[in-house]
Design goal:
Distance between the termini: 66 Å
Bound molecules: beta-D-glucopyranose
Helix content: 25-40%
Number of strands: 27
Number of helices: 23
CATH architecture of one domain: 3-Layer(aba) Sandwich
Structural class: alpha/beta
CATH superfamily of one domain: Glycoside hydrolase family 3 C-terminal domain
Shape: globular
Length: about 775
């Protein structure tokens, strides 16, 4: 089958054979033989030049069009609405179609029934796994392990590419400092240095070094740009920020993805200093293309061109022309390019040169993916049977999930639990599979995920008992409950009176040795359009938790969330808190691994956890102000603080406990007086003083004490995850060079300034050892 179809497209490319109705000039084939001596980029250019010569304006605009796929039922692809458009050459690609059979059938229409037989690109939101789901990205970042993150992206690529997908709308690298914003779940937290490292890892994981194997897919970094800085944490809201802040704090992860060779970029919904990103020429062309040298293509976010109308930029024709001329290449869903650019071209509001450029960029992506050589390269039914949801992938998902959990509290060493006795598993998240995968799990079947109940029971076998009681609904208000069940991730609403559910749970707790309370957000409480103005535990669950604590039984809070929560009470009153985010398909097994101590937790927060929403935005790398409060200080008149709450977070950036303890030495520097490019080594020794082996994430922060502009009180500039056996001591060294001191100054010049620096090393951003370093030019 594959061979026959291959021959079909190859023959067309060789001879220019076309469908009976519409004769087209010969389409060149990828010049594998024709220009054997030429370099790969030159061969690509020759191929695309020849192809574009044959294309009509409508066909070029078709390449720029990424419509919604609609409902393509298996076996019915050729009758779908979209099929007609594909035949007419009006479609460049499709997205979020699941299954190799459907994709193959649709591709067949493009390469057998359209005039030029140009293959489609197939995208999907493969955000944290394909069928094998890994933890949500915010959780992945808490591993502080770029190798693991890269591995998760590679496995996602292997699975997706086996099922017809060649392009993913990931990584999402929006820096977010406002936990009200639900999409904080999709990124890597608040720090540009860590965010850049994760961006590179994900691009590498998806794309590999090239697309030769057919087992890697094209990445798309999003949402360009500054989407995470939405005012008030309200999704899609306005973004307004100084250029210095943009360059130093928000843009680095996008740039890191570009430097890592990401194939595509997605424009964001928000405006950026009064010009929506999707029509922002400075962003899409001056910065992205001219300053950063990006050579791939830019796709809009979902209907983002149409939304320019509501932003107030004009009608669809005006908005489409503005988006094109700003540097957008592909129009997701809205069809503004397809339907209005011909008129704009006639009226001189858009240029053919820009359309050609956009078309070329999309054809180049298809060429690089190998689709002109084999349009079914990613549609191999045999791979779909063997390469997806494998036991090896599931094992990786389990290992990675366990490393993403963050132990927030462990008073009196309640954890790890012993395998035995009776466990009361209580809470609305204790016995649900589909909520384990979290937001953006398009391709997976949530019912195949492992719940906490499944995981605990499997780990215990017949060594102990796990009895479950729901205890509370996720939220107490049924209308709120409807708003968090839009995509069908069931919250299993229980219509019993809240007091009855609590009474049942308390009775169960009273008979048990230990309580595991699985509480927090359900999957749809974070992610797109899931902003919250109150980020505490919902009241229904708070009441339950307080009742459980009152029983006097040891309570372990297994906390599910896609964002930092405000849990000041819990942080003082619940003996053990394990934050498990949304751990993916293997969540329940990984939770059991950590609760029973088979895995020692090592995750560290990549966001600051505030005491209350009034402190937001609260982030570790802030400026000092002219009236700072002394560290760990409480209220002082005429200082930068609040009357009713201290400036401290509940948990700082970088924080996370272990079942063992680590002792840090003072920081030693290879020299306290550096000059020019001479590198400096900063070291600490760390000792595992406990009885368990563990992994510690050692973090290095710098502070420039005097600068031409104000500088943050600390900035992450290095991290290493080290394994330590009980009693073991290791020296951990970081090599610093002037590159680590660079920042964008008031003229947006990227350089370093001589002077004094604090070099801080520790296990989180608050508890550090400090040494002073002078660095001369
Ligand atoms: C989201 C994107 C996503 C796109 C396609 C949009 O609503 O903002 O992140 O990639 O839909 O599904």
């Amino acid at each position: 089958m594959r061979k026959t179809l291959l021959c079909g497209i190859a023959a067309t490319l060789l001879t220019g054979a076309v469908s009976a109705q519409q004769a087209a000039p010969a389409t060149p084939r990828p010049a594998t033989r024709a220009a054997a001596g030429a370099s790969a980029p030159a061969r690509m250019t020759t191929f695309i030049d020849a192809l574009m010569k044959k294309m009509t304006l409508a066909e070029k605009l078709g390449q720029l069009n990424l419509p919604g796929a609609g409902d393509i039922t298996t076996g019915q692809a050729s009758n779908s609405d979209i099929a007609g458009k594909i035949r007419k050459g009006e479609v460049g690609g499709l997205f979020n179609i699941k299954s190799v059979d459907k994709i193959r059938a649709v591709q067949q229409i493009a390469v057998e029934q359209s005039r030029l037989k140009i293959p489609l690109i197939f995208g999907m939101d493969v955000i944290h796994g394909y069928e094998t789901e890994f933890p949500i990205p915010l959780a992945l970042s808490c591993t502080w392990d770029t190798g693991l993150v890269e591995k998760s992206a590679r496995i996602a690529a292997v699975e997706a590419s086996a099922d017809g997908i060649d392009w993913t709308f990931s990584p999402m690298v929006d820096i977010a400092r406002d936990p009200r914003w639900g999409r904080i779940a999709e990124g890597n937290g608040e720090d540009p240095y860590l965010g850049s490292a994760m961006a590179r890892a994900m691009v590498k994981g998806y794309q590999g070094d090239n697309f030769n194997s057919g087992r890697t897919i094209m990445a798309c970094v999003k949402h360009f740009a500054l989407y995470g800085a939405a005012e008030a944490g309200r999704d899609y809201n306005t973004t307004d920020m100084s250029p210095v802040r943009m360059y130093n704090e928000y843009l680095p992860p996008y740039k890191a993805a570009v430097d890592a060779g990401v194939g595509s970029v997605m424009s964001s919904f928000n405006d950026v200093n009064d010009v929506p990103a999707t029509a922002n020429k400075w962003l899409m062309t001056d910065l992205l293309r001219h300053q950063w040298g990006f050579r791939g293509f830019v796709v809009t976010d979902y209907t983002a061109i149409n939304e320019l109308i509501a932003h107030g930029l004009g009608d669809l024709q005006v908005c489409s022309a503005r988006a094109l001329m700003a540097g957008i290449d592909m129009d997701m869903v809205g069809e503004g390019f397809l339907t209005t650019l011909p008129a704009s071209l006639k009226e001189g509001k858009a240029t053919l040169a820009q359309i050609d450029l956009a078309c070329r960029r999309i054809l180049e992506a298809k060429y690089k993916l190998g689709l002109f050589e084999d349009p079914y390269r990613y549609c191999q039914p045999e791979r779909a049977k063997t390469d997806i949801f494998t036991s090896e992938h599931l094992q990786a998902a389990r290992d990675i999930a366990a490393q993403s959990f963050v132990l927030l509290r462990n008073q009196g060493d309640v954890l790890p639990l012993k395998k035995g006795g009776s466990i009361a598993l209580i809470g609305p998240l204790g016995d649900t599979r589909e909520n384990m995968v979290g937001t953006w799990a398009v391709a997976t079947d949530g019912s195949k995920a492992v719940s906490v109940a499944d995981g605990l029971r499997a780990a215990l076998g017949n060594q102990g008992t796990v009895t479950y009681a729901r205890g509370a609904n996720i939220v107490g208000d049924s209308l709120y409950n409807n708003r968090i069940s839009v995509f069908g991730k069931n919250t299993n609403w229980d219509s019993r009176p809240a007091d009855d559910m609590i009474a049942e749970a308390v009775a169960l707790a009273a008979q048990s040795d230990v309580v595991v309370a699985a509480l927090g957000e359900s999957a749809e409480m974070s992610g797109e359009c899931s902003s919250r103005s109150d980020i505490s535990l919902p009241e229904s669950q708070e009441r339950l938790l307080k009742a459980l604590i009152k029983t006097g039984k040891p309570v372990v809070l297994v906390l599910f969330t896609g964002r930092p929560l405000t849990i000041p009470w819990e942080s003082q009153n619940v003996p053990a808190i394990l934050n498990v985010w949304f751990g993916g398909t293997e969540a329940g097994n990984a939770i059991a691994d950590v609760l029973f101590g088979d895995v020692n937790p090592s995750g560290k927060l990549t966001t600051t956890w505030p005491q209350n929403v009034g402190q937001v935005p609260l982030y570790y790398n802030h400026m000092n102000t002219g009236r700072p409060l002394p560290e760990n200080g409480w209220f002082q008149k005429f200082r930068s603080n609040y009357l009713d709450v201290s400036n401290d977070p509940v948990y700082p950036f970088g924080y996370g406990l272990s079942y063992t303890h680590y002792q840090y030495s003072a920081v030693t520097l290879s020299t306290a007086r550096a000059k020019g490019n001479q590198p400096v080594t900063a070291s600490v020794t760390i000792t595992n003083t406990g009885a368990k082996a563990g992994k510690e994430v050692v973090q290095l922060y710098l502070r420039q004490l005097v600068g031409s502009i104000t500088r943050p009180v600390k900035e992450l500039k290095g991290f290493q995850k080290v394994d330590l056996a009980p009693g073991e001591t290791k020296t951990v060294s970081f090599r610093l060079t002037p590159a680590d001191l660079k920042f964008y100054n008031a003229d947006l010049r990227y350089d370093w300034e001589p002077g004094d620096f604090d070099v801080m090393i520790g296990g989180n951003s608050r508890d550090v050892q400090t040494a002073r370093l002078s660095w001369a030019k």
